[in-house]
Amino acid sequence: MKVAIVGSGYFSQFHFDAWARCPEVELVGLASFDRDTAQQMGAKYQMPVFENAAAMCAQIKPELLDIITPPASHAGLIQMASDAGINVVCQKPFCGTLEQARAASDCADKANIDLIVHENFRFQPWYREIARQLQAGRLGKVYQIAFRLRPGDGQGPNAYLARQPYFQKMQRFLVHETAIHYVDVFRYLLGEASSVWADLSRLNPVIAGEDRCLLVMDHGEGKRAVLDGNRLSDHKAQNSRLTMGEMTVEGELGCIFLSGDGDLYFRAHGEQEALSIDYAFEDRGFGGDCVYHFTRHVVDHYVNGTALENTARDYLRNLEIEEAIYLGAEDGQRVRLD
Questions:
Q1: Taking the CB of residue 291, how many other CB atoms lie within 10 A of it?
Q2: Structural domain spans, the chain
Q3: ω into residue 93 within 30 of 0, thus cis?
Q4: Which of 81, 123, 158, 213 has most Cβ atoms within 10 angstroms of its Cβ?
Q5: Is 206 exposed, middle or buried (0-12, 13-18, 19+ CB in 10 A)?
Q6: H helices then E strands: how many in the chain?
Q7: In terms of Cα–Cα distance, which of 246, 232, 231, 239 is closest to 286?
Q8: 3-class SS string, 30-42
Q9: φ, ψ for residue 299, nearest 5 deg
Q10: pLDDT, tens digit, 9 for 90 and up, residues 277-312
Q11: How far apart are the first and last CA of the chain?
Q12: Mean pLDDT of the 141-160 span
């Protein structure tokens, strides 16, 4: 597979590493405005560097384009790739608005190309293991999932500046940038949501958007998901960005607990002792190597014909839920998603 990349910002390092670890992939080009960083990445991964994405695609004709740029640039790059018949992986937040994301999905459909959103949290190994436990019936009927988001990186005037300084200027921040991951995880574990209630606020006055949220999502058949999050508080973990918080999954037969170090435990209903769930993951890159696991999923689709989980058409549902969260938070009302 000939893969080209657009963008060389902070998070791109995990993309480059993931593609390079797939033996079926050849990195054939990088387009970026950041000349110094792009030259470093080009030299490290032995690929030519371009300043213009369209010129790069016209010259090297990749089979897939990985877009790792800010959301405002997504629509134009997807249009360019669609015109050239190039499949696309696009980083989230996916496009600037729901309307742009819908238009980009329509564009890709008309061009008959794959448009895949790089949503990697559902590929974190603890969520894949929780899904296996639920599918095996470990909890019986599932009642609720609750996640406490506590990365602890949002305090003070220098919050986010060292890694992703644009976070401070986002008018929509915690839900649009971070909680959207958990909307997707909840859908992955519990199925489609039927309604959502939200309370949003800002704790750090130096940022433009919200940095605290309480979300309650109903998933039918009595299942509920709760996200209690803020980016100022931390949690017990060697690396507070590994899981970014702690999760409890409750069901009729017991509970599953996720610790901040990625450990999983099961406590049977009526029992006092929680037993460790034996599973393995590599603490590499970001979030238990989830960028690689996502990338491997995409490569397996093209090499082995396996189904894609993160098509843009499906991912639009996450963005519709995001819009419902912001709408409902304005007046504290529950919003039905049908």
A1: 24
A2: 2-118, 122-286+310-336
A3: yes
A4: 81
A5: middle
A6: 9, 15
A7: 239
A8: EECCCHHHHHHHH
A9: -60, -45
A10: 999 999 999 999 999 999 999 999 999 999 999 999
A11: 39
A12: 97
- The arithmetic mean of pLDDT across residues 40-66, rounded, is 96
Residue among 301, 302, 284 nearest 292 (CA): 284
Per DSSP, 176 falls in state I
Mean pLDDT across 129-154: 98
Compute how many other C-beta atoms are within 10 angstroms of the C-beta atom of residue 138.
18
Which CATH entry fits the domain spanning 2-118: 3.30.565.10, 3.30.420.40, 3.40.50.720, 3.40.50.12160? Answer: 3.40.50.720
- Whether omega before 157 lies within 30 degrees of 0, making that bond cis, reads no
pLDDT digits (tens, 9 = 90+) for 217-243: 999 999 999 999 999 999 999 999 999
3-state secondary structure of 199: strand
Residues 68 and 12: beta-carbon distance below 8 Å:
yes
Fold of the 122-286+310-336 domain: Dihydrodipicolinate Reductase; domain 2 (3.30.360)
> Tokens 């435990």 correspond to what residue?
265
How is residue 236 annotated by DSSP?
S
Query: Six-digit token pair at 231?
Result: 């980016």
One DSSP character per residue, 118-149 reads: E--GGGSHHHHHHHHHHHTTTTSSEEEEEEEE
pLDDT at 35 over 90: no
Which is it for the CA torsion 272, 275, 281, 284, positive or negative?
positive
